Predict the structure.
Amino acid sequence: MPVETVSAANGLRKLKVSDSSGSTAEVYLQGAQLTSWIPARGSEMIFLSKASLYRPGAAIRGGTPVVFPQFADLGPLPKHGIVRTVDWESQEPSSASRAALALKANDESRKVWPHEFRASIVVEPAGQTLTVRLSIENTGKAPFSFAAALHTYFRVADCEQARITGLSGTKYRDRGNWSSTWVEDRPVLTISGELDRVYIDSPRAIVVSDEAMPRKFQVSQEGFSDTVVWNPGAELAAKLTDMQPHEYREMLCIEAAQVMQPAMVQPGKRWEGSQRVEVID
Ligand code: TA6
């Protein structure tokens, strides 16, 4: 089946892709944001809040927001940068089971970030795996540096029963106390309250065991140096207007990220990073 463009709420549009095994994905043109991935065998892997605003110019709560060129509020730009709330263009994909979107620097982006770039996102569901690739090309005449992330919200049955393995021995910074660096000493990371950490030079693959579902999946990354693990916990979730208070239990963000050491791209060159998810049967 070819890549299909369909209308969504409030004039938004999304692309629907599927591979021959029956794995499907949906990507909004706004923000090039993945909002659904159903593997060939199994159910929805991606969390989307029922209270999410599907409104032009507002971030969708869930899916995979694309963060660029600033991570969170670590700089002067709008939170998580300038690409998650603007429309990207659908590109002619080389395969029907792959969505490709691109965004170029424009008058709006230049007002806040004076660099020439072309960002592209490719989303490819294939059987029990999903790959999302981000590339940033420097189309200007001067080098620039940036932070980026594929801020994926995974759907879990209960985050407090999820077990995250693979980060033991990795250094991290905690957003609650940004000035210190710790080393993860737990072989299994669990969630009990707000957790917002940047794991630095993280292992290329970690495994999430969603015990309450039950299901297990591996999240791996290339190109990105860091991994962010985030769950807002009950208190912060209650303050988020685009999320229902109990929904923090149903999500877990594992983000392929470039935060601690911004990436540098020379004119005419390209940076690439990807996140790959595999459901382990
Ligand atoms: O990646 C984690 C984080 O930076 C958290 O600090 C939290 O704020 C989250 O992103 C979501 O940000 P948002 O702007 O979408 O509410």
User: Anything to note?
Assistant: Helices lie at 107-112, 233-239. Residues 238 and 245 are 5 Å apart (CA to CA). The longest strand covers residues 251-265.
